[in-house]
Batch of 2 targets.
Target 1
Amino acid sequence: MKHCNLNLLCLFFFFLSSIAFGQDYYKTERQTWLSKANELKPQLTEMIKHPSRLVHTVEDKTSFQGWKAVDSAPMDSLYKNAFTKDRAVIIDFGEHLTGYFSFTLAPLMQTPDAPVRFKLTFGEVPSEVSVPFDPYKGSLSRAWLQDEVVTAMDVPSTITITRRLAFRYVKIEMISQSVAFDFKITDMSCKSVTSASAFPEALSAGTEPMIKKIDQVGLKTLQECMQTVYEDGPKRDRRLWIGDLYLESLANSYSFKNYNLTKRCLYLLAGLSDQNGYLIATVFENPEPHPQTGTHLMDYSFLYNVALKEYFNVTNDIETVNSLWPVAKRQLDIIYAYLQPNGLMNYDKANKEWWLFFDWKEGLHKEAALQGLTIYTLKQTYELARIVNKQGEVKDLPLLIDKMTQAARKYLYDKNKNLFESGPQKQISYASQIWMILGDVLSTKESRKCLNEIIHMKGAFYPGSPYLYHYYIQALINSGMNEEARKTIQNYWGGMVTRGADTFWEVYDPNNEFLSPYNFYPINSYCHAWSCTPVYFIRKYPEIFQTDRKH
Ligand code: RAM
């Protein structure tokens, strides 16, 4: 199983504790939820796209990951001439695409008398079509890498790669051919697919060019990830994760407005939760919808409740919230299972028994972040209860929120430093401050002090991925630090744009472009759901991001 840094065995006991009667917690609802999800499966919009130029990649220290694509020849030079032995070409489609790739082989001289064999490599970024994949040292399956050996038995023929691909560049290398005939490669195309078909509103005319560009790249990222579910990445893992769904649905609400996709995903996750009513962090659609059994992320389970509440805020779809309320309520039992008498979450136990994600950041201590997120979840879930008029079912929440907030301030906050600390080494991280601020543990004034403190601190654990940067931007905005929020989007996401991003990346650390949670940077996803959220910020807060800076 992927991302296996978890102690799944221990989970077993937690989940066993409530399965004593061997009954499905959602016996009466589960089938309805799954059928609803099925009815909402979207029809994908298809478009045929053609390549724009031939390139070659050259090593260049100033380019992202040391590689850049430069013009080599017009497309015609490939389409009109023989594709001879030892030949290799790289085709640039000029934009990121998610879909099905085809090309045609046409005879040129003599009679084709044998099959031809090629190797095709598809890349989202130039390095993927430039560096060798083998010997493979990554921690995820090598099969995610998009290289395929294709044998064409006949010339002429048209070949379509059956696997759906995510790419901008295609490298074609000849492996074997007969000396008795010549052929050419022609008519390359990609049938691109997405469930995002609406045209989002244009930004106000005075918006700075870099913000416009970030918005465009963000929209493209989201569009590529919107398939029959909100995928995390169209190259890898191509499935629904709660954390990605939440962020994608925020961006979708301010752009493509495909609310039925959000609804489908919420129902699907509910329908595929475990027998005890706990959500599973990630689910697959094929061949039949099924969960990745055993993959429980505590932070993602909590964020489901927030996603449901946000879904209601933009749709007023009370029927769905009523139907899914039992799921949100059940996730609160996780909190009760780890709550200590002093009001702190039992971090050590939780960390043993669950996957606590929060960010891809080696060495991050997550106790303070967990406390902050838990308080945030309780507040959001209480609001959800109000929406469906079920406060009576969760009447102890206000007191619990109070208790946990006080505990956070008492045990984890250093008043002199204005910072939260986490763990025995008193680690100071952005993650801790962010989640405490989102949980409203500090006043606005204190939040501002705290963020200013960490921004100027050397050696603080900064976010490792756009995922945590999203929550950082929200914490800045909640603290009234609008200018800092604008600057951070410009520098961080703008940094990817300047480095040539067509779509935003799963991981980006400006200090290390080769960073990979999977030990091999070409397997990172370079069009990743959770990175699309500047779209949400830019469009939700036009007064911060769409103002004309010249006046
Ligand atoms: C990422 C996946 C997905 C995320 C998990 C935790 O790398 O691709 O985006 O939700 O790990």
Target 2
Amino acid sequence: MASHTLSAVAASAGIGTGKIFVVSSPDLSYEAGTCNDAPAEKERFEKAVNTFKEKILEKSDSLKEKAGPKEALILDRQLLLISDPSMSDEMLRLIAEGHSAEEAVDSVCNIFIRMFSGMDDELMCQRAADILDVRNSMLKLLLGLKDTDIASVPKGSILVARDLPPSLTSQIVRENINGIITEEGTRTSHIAIIARAMEIPLVCGAERVLELAKDGDTAIVDGDQGLALINPDREELDKYSELFQKRQRKIARLSQYLGKETVTADGQKLSLFCNIGTPEEAARVLEQSGEGIGLFRSEFLFMDKKAEPSEEEQFEAYKKIAEMMEGRPVIVRTLDVGGDKDIPYLNLKKEENPFLGLRAIRYSLAERQRFSLQLRALLRASAYGKVKIMIPLVTCIEELRSVKSMVEDIKTELDGQHIPYDKNIEIGCMIETPSASLIADILAREADFFSIGTNDLIQYTMCADRGNSGLSYLDSPFHPAVLRSVRHIIGCGKNAGIPVGMCGEAAADPLLIPLLISFGLKEFSVDPSSVLKCRHDIHKWNKKDADELTEKIMSLDNIDEIKKTLAD
Ligand code: PEP
Ligand code: MG
């Protein structure tokens, strides 16, 4: 048997070896032609829609349990799509005109797929993938085809597929799947998000894997290096078995950091918080012994819904997190909409450059009525824990002042209604624009805290769209411009005596940690799955060594050299 090593995208970390199970794509072809009995066809269509909805609800519940609530939202989105009148009315119209239900579903979905996939925007491409999944599931139902049975693949399997849509991933039994290889997809595909949440090694975009892999063949998935090995030889199997054991030992070693304080080698106590998108994820934070919430992306409460959440709904969500965290800090970022985050019912205006447009705090301040509801909900929730308010995409002091003044007005209103809230609620700024960085000294006089959003700070500092894979060489926290900016922000916070945290992805980068310690960062906010590793990395450094390394790094002039020196 010939062995093959395929380069692919490392989409979910880890190493898995096992027997290949090829997930074949079903034949969705149908006979085209006119249909004489439109009412019967309509009934068939409606029956399929109802079954589709029932199945999605079941699958969403199952995915919620296996991967998490945020991941299950991917499926919930499909419910909205099939119920969206712009799709369903058009399908019904075609059926009334004499087209078959298959044809109606196929052609309407294809119009939307073409429209969304033609847009140079990651979110829109994901929308196209959602509709493709809806189309295929609906066609399967109409054609009476069974779902591929992933639930019963044997223990020790490696799934190989063109792509794995969310409707199939919900069936995965974690214990049975050692790894996944897909021919299509990227790090941001649905399957990648779900595999990371389920901690299954995954490589995407492995060209020709479907041609080379056969059911029952052996495969290794190297989700760290981005490799798929089909029918590996003895030597490769031994090498990977050793790597796997080493990895397991490392994971076991990390568990010693559960429930421990986050301290540097010379005893400096730091805070290690988590980034979450839904109240339910707070449970994962506690499980991993995160010390608080450093970033709750409140837009998740607004996304994938038909209408915006009321003050009461928001209050319940914030209160739930505050209570779960039992007095630990809960930093809630106010609605960060716009840019790549669209919320259809908010009817955001189409802009030439949405990343430079009416997004985040700019949008909230332009929609004060809506924003007051969120601030009221946050103030009310502050009576139940240590809630703090964080403003996204600040670029000038007036934005901070406007929010503070709105909060003061709402406090007076709540006093009048005898509604309790934290009178000393803190209001901080996300520092994620070059402008905020440059005026960090000014902002620090009036903000209660800073949190550095490196994801956006890098994109705006480097003038490089963070979703554009062709520019990924510029998307680096190690560029001297970004490092200088981060050092400056932390310094301004220190001078003003306010805490500075970091909630962008870079906070969990082990290479960056000594620099952040040296600059004086006090709070790291990372994904719950990175808490133990990050705590371990922080434990390794003392200030003196971190300062020496930082001095050397800050004298270097390019990303490659900086990264190489840090890795040595
Ligand atoms: C950031 O910009 O670094 C950040 C944490 O926010 P988001 O990724 O949601 O824009
Ligand atoms: Mg941001």
